[in-house]
Each structure stands twice: as C-alpha cells, then as structure tokens.
Amino acid sequence: MAKKESRLGVILAHAPNVSAIDEGLKSELSKKGVVVTTLNHLYNWGRSSSIWPMQFGLACCAIEMIATACARYDMARFGAELFRASPRQSDLMIVAGTVTKKMAPQVVRLYNQMPEPKYCITMGACAIAGGPFIDGYNVLRGIDRYIPVDVHLPGCPPRPEALLHGLMQLQKKIESQEIEKTAWYQKGLKREYPVPEFGPRGLIPKFNPEVWQPRAKDNRKERYGEPILIGKKIKAPDLDAETLRRASGGPAK
Amino acid sequence: MKNKTDTPLTEDFDTQTLQINVGPQHPATHGVFRMDLTLDGETVVRLKPVMGYLHRNHEQIAENMTYAASMPYTDRLDYFNSMSNNFGYALAVEKLAGIEVPERADYIRVILAELTRIVNHISVIGFLLNDLGAFFTPLTYAFREREKILDLFEEIAGSRMMCNYFRFGGVKRDLPPGLLERIRTMMDVFPRFLDEFEALLTDNDILCLRCQNVGVLGRELALNAGLSGPMLRASGLGYDIRKVDRYSIYGRFDFKVPVGSKGDVYDRYYVRVLEMRESLKILDQALRQIPSSGDIISRKAAPFLKAPRNFKPPVGEAYGRVESPKGELGFYVVSDGSPQPWRYHVRAPSLINLTVLEDLCIGHKLADAMVILGSIDIVLGEVDH
Q1: Do A157 and A140 share a structural domain?
Q2: H/E element holding A119?
Q3: Owning domain of residue A42
C-alpha cells in the first residue's frame, strides 16, 4: 500500500508491503488462494485490529468511553469493543478521567500488570495534565509522570469521535512498529514502572525521571501570567450581625 | 483423598470468613469506589466503603475563584446531569444576591432539568441491568436514547455532557430556532421506547427474581439516614423537593410523585421508570406554556456576564436546593462581600445515599451487593467531590 496524502495533509504511516515477489507472480498465486505478505505486516495487522482495552473508568471521561462503545459510535468497527475487566487480558489502558494522588499508585500498578505489548491513551485534560482541577491539592498533574503514554486526547471530556480518532492514531503507531525491533522481544526488557507511594505530602517520588522530566520553562506561566493569588481569608463574615442589621433596617457596611 | 461430601458438618466445623476487596478498579463499582467486604461463604457479613479515590477538591477550588467560575466545576460533580447541578448552584447564588429570574429563562431551566432527569434515569437502569448480568445489551439501548437527548444539549449549550449553560439570573444564550419542536419530536418517540424497554424488563422473571426483596430499605432507616430522591421514594415516602419547595416554577405544573411500597431494588428501578414518565408530563406542559420571546437573563445580573469579578453578593448565607435525579442536591454559599465565596459546600445526594449501603447488603449474597450498589445510583464525582 502506497503512502498517500490525506485530506489534512498527514502522511499515513501504514507499513508498506515490501515483499520481494514480483506483482505478476503474486497475482497468479492469489488466484490459487495463496497470499504473499510480510510477517511484519501480518503481525501488525492482527494486533492493530483487535486491541482489547481495559474497562477502567476514573471519572467523567469514562462515560464518553462507554458511549463510544455503545450503539451510535460503535467502537467494534475498529476491533476494540472487547473491554476486559482484568489488566492481564488487555492491551490498551484508556486512562479516562482525573487521576488523583490516591488513585495514581493503583493506575501505575494496573499498567504494570498488563502483558506486553501494552499501550496507553490518556483521555481528557485531567489525565493529561490535571485539567480544570490542576490547582487542586489532590490531583495528579498528568499520568505521564509515571507511565509512558502513546496518545494524548485533549478535551473535557473528548467527544466519542475524538476517542475513535485517538484509537486510529494508535493503530497507525502499531502498524509502524517492526517485529525485529520491538522492545518486548529484546533481551533484558524492563517495563515495570516503579509504583509511587501515597505519602502524607503527596506522592513519593514526585515523578519517574525515566519517563518524564520537568520542563525547563513554565509554559503555563508564560501564557497566562502569574496566577492571581487571593489573600488568605481568615476572618469569617459576621452573619448574625448582618441578620440583625437587616432586621433593624440599619445602613449597609 | 476423601470425598468432600463426606466431611462431617458438625457444629465445631472450622469455618473462616473471607475478606475480599472490590475496587477501586472493578467493573461493577461505577467508577473508583472501593468496598472492603467480609464474606461468610457467599454471604456478606461486613461491608466497609472506602472513598476518596476521586476527591478533586471541588470546594477548595470554588472558594478560590469567582462565583461564576465555579459553574463549570459543578458540571463535573455529577457528570450524568450537569444541568441539574448548574440549576442548584444558580438557585443558591440567586438567593444570596437577590436576583429574580425572567419567566422564559425559568421555563428553559425546567425543560433542561427534566431532560437531564430522563438521561440520568435511563442510564442508571442500563447500568443496573449491567450489574445484573445483562451485559451491555440494555445499556446499548439506553445510551441510544441518551444520545438523542445529548444532541439537543449540544445544540443548546455547545457541549454534550459538560453543558455549563446556566448563569445567575438566567441562562447563557437563547434556545436555537426550532429546538422546541425537536424536543417535542423526541418526546413523541420516547414513550414508545420506554414501553418497549418496560416490556422487556418490568415483568421479566429474571429481573423480578434478582431484584424483588433484595436490599430492602425500611422507612425508618431511610428517614434516619437522611436519604433523598428515588431511594427515599421507593421506600414509601413521597418527599420530592419539586413539590415541597416549589422552587423555580415547579408550582405551575401538574405531576405526581411516584412512591414505592417495599423499598427493594425492584421498587427503586420502577420508581425511576415512573419518574421518567412524570418528567415527560412536565415537559409537555412546559413546552405548551413557555413564552415565545422574552429576556433570558435578568437585567440585574446581565452586566456580570462579561465582568464576573464585579459580582459581589452582600454579606450573608444561602442554601439552594434542587431535586436532582439522585436526590436533594444542595449548595450552601457564604459571602463575605468579596468576589469569592467565603464558604462553599455541596450537599451531595450520592454521598448521603451511599451511607446505607452496609445496612442494605448485610445478609445478602455478594452478587446481590453489586445490584444494590447499582440501584443506589452513585456517581463518584459527587460522592468524593
């Protein structure tokens, strides 16, 4: 299959069929029911068209994930309808929703329990970087601090179409991998990621330096400026005095 | 080896209770809820809910931003029905600041809140059937109908789930042209779907066997635990805030409050079906009564749409509550006269309804515990807020 230009100008990275057999012989063989292809192509075709995601919802995005699996969007068209409840049986983890600091160790542990080859999609702004809850004390600012992520899906929540698009991107990634170079057939594969601990002051360690490094410059600060800090509100409003004032019709403060 | 059946079952036969952990990643826990179960054989003897896996500091974040900026966060509390959450928060702040809502906006709010109730109940029944073992088939039908309503929400608010559509003193923008007719079309089709759904489920032998007399919630316990919503009504108490408070314009509509008799899982299921039918009745009346034109936001509150930091309610406190599909959803806001609320608290119905889980599950089988959890209808975003 030749490379072709899609409407958006993205070059599809499908693995081309590079068999050395000439085309005439190939068509002759196909008439007799013999298909000639590369092992690589067959291997990737099989893997990419039967991805088993893990049934693992965290928050709001999980509902959109379920909607994607249901009638209208029908993820089964892409071979990914078989949501498995166990990480041992799944290929793909869709981190759908806010990862809190209490939940993060469990997410990493689940990812470790998945067999190779395994993939990860972060769905929604929260899983990517904390999303609207980034200022919260209990929200992890992106699961990519602990595990490698293949596809990021922005949105709050992303539409089901976006999830399908993310899945197709992942399929493209799978199809571009080569069987001789894949990490999970090499010797000495180390794909167990250290599980963070939920300590009294957040997670220990703060991130896994093998997969994530803090940025040199703070893009958020550059774009939005210094966060508006509100003075500590210590004094409670005196509600009783206010009620009395209203009852007596006194002047407002 | 001795045959197992030959084992003498005397009184001093040594048995052990089994401790198992369900969740936080479990297909039947509706999110990241965790249960520490102690089982005797297959019977639940102790159940300890563990929460906090989705604690997103909603209240702390809301206290550090302007009143209007919390509105999108309320969407994410109970992510099935964002419109009801908006409604509750808008009511609380309107009470605090003394803002009147124009009539057309009130009708729009009621229409959207009732549509949300339908979305919620239909999904909940789908998930309940999921827990019962009818894996994904009823849910697929339920989500097909849900998508039709979400299409309407998308037209109105621009987003499927997180609508962020209500504003203090009204709503964000007027309804798009022709929308009311489309709601009418949806309403004509929906009862037929509901009939079909009920024909498959309500008299179904398996559903009856699994749900009747399971997880019976007595009237006393329901009252003492402070439950609300369909949970309370299934136990035979017709307490509905739409009737009690008559907030917004609910006093103008004629509808009934469905009440169960036993308080078991089946009653909770059936109360929800009936509530959907009542919601359709309210929608029908609202669509006939809604004024064809008029303000959608009050004159007093309109300037704050563009300048939310100028919105400073007077010192005081207010509690606004609505009958959300899960129960009484209340927002308690205290103002100290600054642009941020001094205290902001959510009374989350899911959290309070969940407190009776242990009482309901004890003595039942493990498989029934899942069904009982499904019938309580929790959303973890709201439980942990």
Answers
A1: yes
A2: strand A119-123
A3: 2-48
If contacts are CB pairs under 8 Å, which of residues 81-140 in chain A contact chain B? 85, 87, 97-98, 100, 102-103, 106, 110, 132-133, 135-139
Q: Is it the case that residue A52 has pLDDT exceeding 80?
A: yes
DSSP state of A231: P
Share of chain A above pLDDT 70, in %: 87
Instruction: Check whether residue A13 and residue A86 sit in a common domain.
Output: no
Pairing, β B18-22 against β A202-204: unpaired
Partners of B151 on chain A (C-beta within 8 Å) are: none
What residues of chain A lie within 8 A of the CB of B143, using their CB? Answer: 66-67, 70-72
Answer whether B316 touches A (CB < 8 Å). yes
Residues of A in contact with B71 (CB under 8 A): none
In a domain, residue A253? The reply is: no
Lowest mean pLDDT among A46-55, A235-244, B226-235, B362-371: A235-244
Are A218 and A191 members of one domain?
A: yes
**DSSP secondary structure, A28-68, as one string:** HHHHTT-----HHHHHHHHHHTS--BB--B-SHHHHHHHHH
Q: Residue A9 — pLDDT band, cuts 50, 70, 90?
A: very low
The pair of structure tokens assigned to B252 is 């103008």
Asked if residue A128 lies in contact with residue A154, where contact means CB atoms within 8 angstroms, the answer is yes
For residue range A142-189, list pLDDT tens digits in order: 888 899 999 999 988 899 999 999 999 999 999 888 888 888 888 877
pLDDT at B93: 92
B146 touching A, CB under 8 A? yes
| 8 Å CB contact between B89 and B341 | no
CB-CB neighbors (< 8 A) of B61 in chain A: 133, 135-136
Which CATH number belongs to the domain containing residue A156 in this structure? Answer: 3.40.50.12280
Global ipTM: 0.87
* A59/B139 CB distance under 8 A: no
Regarding whether A203 and A90 lie in a shared domain, the answer is yes
pTM: 0.87
Helix, strand, or coil (residue B63): helix
